[in-house]
Each structure stands twice: as structure tokens, then as C-alpha cells.
Amino acid sequence: MEWILLLFLGLVAAILGSIMGLGGGIIIVPALMVLSGYTTILEGITPQVAVGTSLLVMIFTGLSSTLAYVKQKKVDIKSGLIFFIGSGPGALFGVWLNKDINVNMFLIFFGVFIILVSFILMVRKYVKPIQLAKKGGVRRTYQNDLGDTVEYGYHPALGIAIAFVVGMCSGLFGIGGGSLMVPAMILLFAFPAHMAVATSMFLVFLSAIVSSISHISLGNVDWLYAAALIPGAWAGGMIGAAINRRLASDTVVNLLRIMLVIIGIRLIYQGITGA
């Protein structure tokens, strides 16, 4: 029964994470910690092991959803690789911080910031994206399902800097980083919502590889837990991408806003209680 519970946890986390580009770690990490007090197989699990195991699972969530989004032609692979220049080293830095840093105050401030981002998304139509640099700016065009051509873009240096912070949060908290990267792509770079989610999952996949390798080397991965979570995560990544395809852009953003508030409250609670 407990193994079935883990399989279901991986499935639900991956579906929600894939729909909104978050990866699912924000669900898996606290769920493992809560379940550790009620189940025999998870008894005594540490936060580091929960984070490390979550990141390993997110490799499969990220890969399955990325493959599904690539078929839908919604992944900006070139932009994802540019962002990975920042998120890769950021993930390694986050893993290093995870070893012994006291992050309680940081969790509180980060949680408040995440909630603030949710409210900014509410008025995103009145927020003007950062102007592209005349030289060195990356410009892209995307044709949505309605046939409209949308232009978006960013300066690589800014994109890499933001992705570094995203990667750091991924390695530190095991949350996948999408809670920051998706809003940044939508608000700052004018990415269409569906493309921001799809590209974020590609970035989650790449960053999770780097972070999980580091956590494996530190002994922070429980392979039995991962084996139970991965099948559900793989299926959930594809299911989430299929659901996302049927949702309107505003619906995707509204779901993201709700999830960001939940994430923010969870981080604040974790910072206050240390749980």
C-alpha cells in the first residue's frame, strides 16, 4: 500500500508540475517529509534525502514532459540551452548551500517573494516586458493555436543571471526552479504562457540532472523511494503536457498563480517552523 502511495504521489506531482512548468518537486519534498511520520518505509527521512530524491525523480518528469512538448512544437530549445548556462552552475551552488546552511529566514523572504510574483501575474497585462537590447538581444516569434504571431525576447546576460538564481533554488530546495523561471519568462521576456511552461520543463530536466548528480555524490538519494516515484512521474509528465495543450493561456497563468501562492505559504511555514 505504501509503495502504491508513492507511485500515486509521483503521478500527481508530475501532472501538476508539467501543466505549470514547475517540475513537481514542491509537492514531492514536503509530501515525503510528512509521510515519514506516518509510514514505515519513509521513517526517518531527512530533508536532504527528500530534496535529493525529488531531484532525481524530476529528471524523468522533465524528460517525459519535454518530449511531449517538443511534439507540440512549444519548446524553445535554444533559449533553454542559453538559460541552462546560468541554471547549471546555479544548481551546483544550491546543492553546496544545502549541505549546512541555515535557510529559515531565506525561506520566509523567498516565500513572500513568490506570493508577490503571483500577484504581479494578476496584473501582467499592465507590466511592460524589459526592452530588448539593440545589440545582443535575442528575438523570437511564435505562432499560437489561434494563428496569431507573438514576438518575445530577452538579453542573454539577463536570462542567464535569472536562470542562475532559478538553478540555485532548484538545488537548494528541490523545487525544480520553475516557480521563478516561468513567471520571469512571462513577465520579463513576454514568452507566451504555453511556451514558457514547455521551455521551463526542458530547463527543469537539464538542471535536475546536474543537481541530482551532486546529491547522489553526497549520498542524498534513496533509490527505493525513487524507484517507486519514477514510473508515476514519467506518466504524469506526459499527461500534464497533454492537459496543458487543452488549456487557454489565461487558464495556465491562473493555475500558476494559485500554485505560487501555495508554494509561498509552504516556504514561509517551513521557514518559521523548520519543518
What does this structure look like?
The protein is mainly α. The chain has one domain (2-273). 72% of the residues lie in helices and 4% in strands. The longest helix is centred in the N-terminal third of the chain and has 25 residues, at 47-71. The relative contact order is 0.24. The mean pLDDT is 82.
How does the SSE layout of this entry go?
Layout: H1 2-20, H2 25-35, H3 47-71, H4 77-98, H5 104-122, E1 138-143, E2 149-154, H6 156-173, H7 178-187, H8 193-217, H9 223-245, H10 249-273
Antiparallel strand pairs: 1-2
List keywords for this structure.
single chain, 275 residues, mainly alpha, 10 helices, transmembrane helix, membrane
Order of helices and strands: HHHHHEEHHHHH
- How many β-strand stretches? 2
State the helical fraction: over 70%
The backbone outline, from C-alpha atoms, is globular
Low-confidence stretches: none
Strand order, main sheet: write it out.
Answer: 1-2
State the major sheet.
Answer: 2 strands, antiparallel
In angstroms, what is the radius of gyration? Answer: 17 Å
Chain oligomer state = single chain
How many domains would you count in the coordinates? 1
SS-derived structural category: mainly alpha
Strand content is under 5%
Number of helices: 10
Compute the separation of the termini in Å: 25 Å
Mean model confidence by pLDDT:
82
Q: Briefly, what is this?
A:
With 275 residues, this protein is mainly alpha-helical. 72% of the residues lie in helices and 4% in strands. It has helices at residues 2-20, 25-35, 47-71, 77-98, 104-122, 156-173, 178-187, 193-217, 223-245, 249-273, and strands spanning 138-143, 149-154.
